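pls design
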């Protein structure tokens, strides 16, 4: 359980604790992390921590929800300027991969949540899928995508983004984990290579594109149409 702040200063302090928790849980894992380490990283007293969170599990669960809100905001903001669904997909995926590079904890914390806070894990994915389904339903009705099941497509697209991001952003390098360069001095990971992004989007665009009926060819019995010489 967490307690909402009542003042702007409280909001800033709570955000500072969440940012510290993001780093500590990502670096050490849930079981090695502690409230002491989180408060030290945040530069706040232990008593201050308990003004906002009941304990380690509470701040972890809140962190999952906070990361979810931030990544959805980044994707929605990026795709909101698109004029077609396929443009929105491209902008949304680009924003997702950029957020992953800036916040590698998104992967590490979410994967820990499977065992530590499964309800928060389900909530994370369901919130992403919910908005995705709404957008795909509208795009299908407007004939901007093919006749796909919006729910199945949403889960499949989310899976593509997560695995591609894990391989080329989180792991990095040409050969995967063994060649990963790790985050830079600013804590960011390298963004997804342009060629990988383009290939990923080509795959997605082909999967979603409307299926147009082929134009009919010349009628076989139409004497006005030229054909092969016998």
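designed seq:
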């Amino acid at each position: 359980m967490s307690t909402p702040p009542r003042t702007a200063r409280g909001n800033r302090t709570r955000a500072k604790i969440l940012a510290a928790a993001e780093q500590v849980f990502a670096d050490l894992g849930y079981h090695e992390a502690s409230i002491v380490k989180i408060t030290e990283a945040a530069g706040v007293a232990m008593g201050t921590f308990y003004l906002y969170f009941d304990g380690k599990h509470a701040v972890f669960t809140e962190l999952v929800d906070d990361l979810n809100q931030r990544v959805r905001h980044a994707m929605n903001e990026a795709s909101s300027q698109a004029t077609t669904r396929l443009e929105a997909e491209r902008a949304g995926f680009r924003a997702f991969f950029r957020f992953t590079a800036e916040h590698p904890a998104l992967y590490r914390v979410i994967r820990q949540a499977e065992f530590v806070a499964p309800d928060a894990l389900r909530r994370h994915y369901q919130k992403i899928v919910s908005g995705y389904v709404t957008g795909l339903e509208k795009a299908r009705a407007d004939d901007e995508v093919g006749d796909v099941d919006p729910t199945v497509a949403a889960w499949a697209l989310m899976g593509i983004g997560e695995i591609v991001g894990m391989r080329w952003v989180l792991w990095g390098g040409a050969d995967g984990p063994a060649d990963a360069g790790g985050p830079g001095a600013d804590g960011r990971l390298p963004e997804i290579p342009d060629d990988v992004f383009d290939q990923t989007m080509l795959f997605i665009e082909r999967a979603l594109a409307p299926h147009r009926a082929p134009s009919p060819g010349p009628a076989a019995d139409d004497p006005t149409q030229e054909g092969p010489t016998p």
